[in-house]
Amino acid sequence: MSSSVDSTESTPAAATPTQELRNKLSTFRFNEELTPSLRPSPRNHRRLVNLKCEEEEDSLPALGASDVSTTTPSRKRARSSPVEEIDEKPLESSSPKKRRTGSISPKKRKRTPGIAPTEKYAHLDGLSDHLGDDTDMLDVMFCGINPGQMSATIGHHFAHPTNHFWKCLYGSQLTDRLLNPREDGTLPKSYSLGLTNLVERPSAQAAELANTEFTAGVPALFQKIIQRRPRIVCFVGKGIWDSFIRATAPPVGPAVNSEDADIDTKFTMAVTTSVTSSSSAPDPKPPATATSTVKTRSKATVKRTVSRKAKAEPFVYDLQPYKVIHTAPDATVHETLFSVVVSTSGLVAGYQLPEKIKQFSALKKRVDELRRGTLDTSSMTVLPIPKALLN
């Protein structure tokens, strides 16, 4: 009886299906000692830190109530410090959108330069005009704004490498080859082209000049027109044309437009009006009689009227409806016309080189029409010549 019992106890119990499954799955259990260490990527670094801290918590022995108060703060610092360092520094694999909103500062806006003081460019000399030795020899007298910093440094017109002036001359066939800025002195004799500026003071940008400087240069330019008698005066830039025509066009008003008024008085009044309008003084208040009429119209109506007029009359870069008549007995050129092209500076991004060449080509066409006598100028407004310039 006892032998049967011993044989029964020594026989191992049969494994259950659940136990067999556990034994098979135990072979796939992760073993840290047998697995080589891998370098975690920055993207999963936070997840690995959290998992490691959880494993440490599970492996720590149970602590008494007296030990919890002393050990808990150190465990919290050990867990939180790696995570805080990751949160403070942006991850290298984060999207560009997150980097822009985080550490990258916005771009600084370019500021328009203010009016430059006289001493800022006092070390630079002005440019000499190239208008030829004789009268009636120029087909076109080009008038620029003022000598640029590069042009004043080397002593030649339109000398900046990004300026399109010389390329426009060649592209429009006003010259038979692409000239170097150092060849500007050959233009009058070889191509019947002249060069001058409205303002003599050099500057890096035209925005550094005051409005009064543009107006002050108008009488000297008018005198060059009377003395040289070019067929066309071409303004390289709309701003200098606006300054010129404000000062020379006959002012509106019955007293000034009368035939008995002195021409010198007209010219002086035009220059004075232009200088006053360019100053920063506030506009005078409208008279009392016109107040009721102004109040009846809303601001929205006034804005719509102004915008419609501006869109209806865009500026045309070509011949302008003005001329100067030369009455000298020995004059071969009896009329000087005025044309405007866009500034050839490389800073003018609204007009690229092909469009500028088109404007110079239109100028070349006008010169050919004047030479053939096929251009009708009868409807153009005659600009009065001051008596002081006729002597």
From TrEMBL:
GO biological process: base-excision repair, AP site formation
Pfam families xref list: UDG
Uracil-DNA glycosylase-like domain ranges (all copies): 137-247
Composition bias type Polar residues, residue spans: 1-10
Keyword Membrane included in the entry's annotation: no
InterPro entries reported for this sequence: MUG/TDG, Uracil-DNA_glycosylase-like, Uracil-DNA_glycosylase-like_sf
Key words of the record: DNA damage, DNA repair, Hydrolase
Residue ranges with Basic residues bias: 96-112
Chain residue ranges for the region called Disordered: 1-121, 275-297
Feature: compositional bias, Low complexity: 275-293
Protein name: Uracil-DNA glycosylase-like protein
